[in-house]
Write a structure and sequence with these properties.
single chain; 468 residues; alpha+beta; Ribonucleotide Reductase Protein R1, domain 1; 4 domains; 14 helices; 32% helix
C-alpha cells in the first residue's frame, strides 16, 4: 500500500503551478515580442514603400527631362504628370501609393507648383564676384567677406572676413574648405551664415506660408510674423551648375583665341559665318588679338597691318550686329575649364536668362532694374530659336551693346541641372516620404548627383482628393 505524504504532494503541486506560470509568462512575452517584431517589420516595410514611391517621382522627373528638357511646359508646371500620380494606375488619390512632384510658385505664394526647379535660374556662389554677392538679399559685407575667405585659397582674411585662424578658436574647430562649395548646405559652416538665412522661414520647404511660419517666436521656425514667407538663399543661390561648352547641335564650340590661323577661315565658313566676320577673326588671330568673351565681337573693330601698304595700319570691323549675334553666341567660345571627372570642357555656374527671377538678375553686372523687369517679362513669351542663346536680350533691344558685353560671361540660355522634390504617400496608411534630388543632364544620360531625405520636416501638404 502506497502512502502519499500530503505535505510533499502540496509542494509538488505548487512547484508545478509555478513552472506553468513561468512558462505562460514566457509564452505571452514571446508572443508580444513576435507581435512587436511583426509590427515593426510591417512599419519598416511601409517606410520602404513610401521611399520607393518618392523615388518613383524622381525617376518620372528624369524621364520627362530626358525627353523634353527644352520644352519648359513639360517640366515647369505639369499637374497631369506630376500631381497625385497613382502607382496602381487607378488614379484614386484616396487609395494606394501616390507621388507628387512639387516646387515653390513665384506667381502664387498660396499654392504649390507641380514641377521642377531649374538650378541655373540661381546665382552660383562659386563664380559670383564680391559685387554680385553683395546684391543678394541679406548679404551684408561681413557675410560676403567671410564667404569669400572660406572659399579662396589663401590665409589672409578680408576686412570683415574670417580665415582658418578664426575657425580654430571655435569650441569645436574644423578645417575650412579653401575651395569651391560642394552644396548650398555648406554655407552653414561659414561664419555669419545661419539656418534662417540659408533656408528662410519655410520650415517644411513647400513654398507655402504656414501658421507656424508667421507667428514670431511662438513656435519653430524663427520668423518675423510679417505675413510674407522668406524662402532664404536656397531659392536664389546654388553651387552645382555647369554646362558642356557645345553649340545647340552638340558640337564643340570654336575657340576664337586658340584656333590655328591656317585653318581658321575654313572652320568659320563651315559654321556659317559671313566673309566679313571670317576675315576679322582670321586677322585678329594672326595679330594675336584675344577676346575675353564671344560677346566682345559685337560692333568690334581691330587695327591690323595693311596687306597692300607696308607699315600702314587699317581698322577692320567684325560685322557682328543684331542680325548675326545669335550665331556668334551659339558657335564661338573663348574657352572653358575641364570637368574633373570626365575631362570634357565645361562652362561653370552661368545663370539662365530665360528662367532666373528678378532677385538673381539684379545681382548680375550690366543689368539695371528696368532691363531686369523686361527680361523676366519677355522670357515668358519666347519660344524655340529665339530663346536658344543669350543674344536675344540685345537683339530685342532690352540692353545696350556695352551692357550685353558686361553680363554675357555670367549668363546662359540653357540648363542642365534640375532640383526635384518628390512626396510619396499612402492616405490610407498615413505613411509618407519626402525626397529632394538634383538631376544632372550635362553628361548625356540623367544622373542623380544629390539626394536628401526631407521626411523629418513633416508633411508638405495634405495628400487627399482635394490636393489632386
Amino acid at each position: 500500500m502506497i502512502v502519499i505524504n500530503r505535505a510533499a504532494a502540496g509542494t509538488v503541486l505548487v512547484m508545478v503551478l509555478f513552472i506553468v506560470a513561468i512558462l505562460s509568462v514566457a509564452a505571452v512575452s514571446k508572443m508580444l515580442v513576435t507581435r512587436s517584431e511583426v509590427s515593426a517589420a510591417a512599419a519598416a516595410g511601409r517606410g520602404l514603400e513610401a521611399r520607393a514611391t518618392a523615388m518613383s517621382g524622381i525617376h518620372c522627373a528624369m524621364a520627362v527631362l530626358m525627353n523634353s528638357r527644352d520644352d519648359q511646359t513639360a517640366w515647369f508646371d505639369n499637374p497631369p504628370v506630376f500631381q497625385a500620380q497613382s502607382l496602381t494606375g487607378q488614379g484614386d488619390a484616396e487609395e494606394g501609393w501616390h507621388f507628387t512632384v512639387y516646387a515653390e510658385s513665384r506667381e502664387d505664394p498660396t499654392s504649390v507648383r507641380y514641377g521642377l526647379v531649374d538650378e541655373a535660374s540661381k546665382l552660383n556662389l562659386n563664380i559670383a564676384t564680391e559685387e554680385m554677392l553683395a546684391k543678394l538679399p541679406n548679404m551684408i559685407r561681413e557675410r560676403v567677406d567671410c564667404l569669400l575667405d572660406y572659399c579662396d585659397g589663401d590665409d589672409e582674411p578680408r576686412l570683415n572676413g574670417a580665415e582658418q585662424e578664426y575657425y580654430d578658436t571655435l569650441p569645436w574647430p574644423y578645417r575650412i574648405k579653401n575651395g569651391p562649395l560642394g552644396t548650398l548646405e555648406e554655407l552653414l559652416l561659414v561664419k555669419g551664415f545661419t539656418g534662417s538665412l540659408v533656408f528662410g522661414e519655410d520650415a517644411n520647404r513647400n513654398g507655402l506660408l504656414e501658421p507656424n511660419e508667421d507667428d514670431g517666436d511662438d513656435s519653430f521656425p524663427p520668423d518675423d510674423a510679417n505675413g510674407q514667407l522668406d524662402r532664404g538663399l536656397r531659392c536664389l543661390a546654388t553651387a552645382i551648375t555647369y554646362e558642356p561648352n557645345v553649340d545647340s547641335e552638340g558640337n564643340q564650340r570654336i575657340n576664337i583665341n586658340t584656333e590655328d590661323p591656317a585653318s581658321f577661315a575654313r572652320v568659320l565658313e563651315d559654321a556659317g559665318f559671313a566673309r566679313q566676320t571670317v576675315d576679322f577673326l582670321v586677322a585678329a588671330r594672326k595679330a594675336n588679338v584675344g577676346f575675353a568673351d564671344p560677346s566682345h565681337l559685337l560692333e568690334a573693330t581691330v587695327e591690323v597691318d595693311d596687306p597692300r601698304v607696308q607699315g600702314r595700319k587699317i581698322t577692320i570691323s567684325s560685322g557682328v550686329d543684331r542680325s548675326n549675334l545669335h550665331l556668334v553666341m551659339d558657335k564661338l567660345t573663348t574657352g572653358g575649364v575641364r570637368h574633373p571627372t570626365t575631362g570634357q570642357e565645361i562652362l561653370f555656374g552661368r545663370v539662365n536668362l530665360n528662367s532666373a527671377p528678378e532677385e538673381v538678375l539684379r545681382a548680375l553686372p550690366g543689368l539695371d532694374g528696368e532691363s531686369v523687369g523686361t527680361i523676366v517679362s519677355m522670357s515668358r513669351g519666347l519660344e524655340g530659336p529665339a530663346r536658344s542663346t543669350t543674344a536675344w536680350i540685345y537683339t530685342e533691344g532690352v540692353v545696350s551693346a556695352d551692357a550685353f558685353k558686361k553680363v554675357s560671361p555670367y549668363v546662359t540660355a540653357r540648363s542642365y541641372q534640375y532640383r526635384v522634390r518628390s512626396f510619396g504617400y499612402n492616405p490610407q496608411l498615413g505613411r509618407f516620404c519626402v525626397l529632394e534630388a538634383v538631376i544632372d543632364l550635362a553628361q548625356g544620360q540623367p544622373r542623380i548627383v544629390y539626394l536628401r531625405d526631407l521626411t523629418h520636416l513633416g508633411v508638405p501638404f495634405v495628400p487627399s482628393g482635394v490636393e489632386r
